[in-house]
Amino acid sequence: MGQTTLIRKGFRQGGPAGFGLRRLLVDETGNPKFELRRLEHKSIQTDRVILVPGPPEEIAVVRDIYRDFVDRRLGEQAIATSLNGSVA
Fold first, then answer.
1. The dihedral of CA 75, 76, 77, 82: what is its sign?
2. What does the domain layout of the chain look like in residue ranges?
3. Other CB atoms closer than 10 Å to residue 25's CB: what's the count?
4. How many other C-beta atoms can be found within 10 angstroms of the C-beta atom of residue 69?
5. Dihedral of CA 37/41/43/49: which sign?
């Protein structure tokens, strides 16, 4: 029940942030403290974690993926192939 309440309030309940997102530690009043790096955890029980936008380059990739899927009607495989081709 407690986890459900925290989720409804917009707090993160564990696991890594998705691509284009970062985990931000906030105090009990919602003031930002710092961004948590990979595998870092909060140490104070009253602190909470929220998701915030990540680097602009990652956000641009996520927008391109949505644009390809929604506007261009590309399938998942075509999008993945396109992304893998741009990495090489």
1. positive
2. 1-54, 55-88
3. 19
4. 14
5. positive
* Structure tokens given for 13: 């309940």
Q: How far is CA 47 from CA 20, 35, 43, in A?
A: 23, 12, 8
CA distance 68 to 88: 20
pTM: 0.75
Backbone torsions φ then ψ of 49, nearest 5 degrees? -120, 130
CA–CA dist 18, 53 (Å, integer) = 10
Q: pLDDT tens digit string along 15-63? A: 889 999 999 999 999 999 999 998 888 888 889 999 999 999 999 999 9
Distance between CA atoms of residues 32 and 50, nearest Å? 9
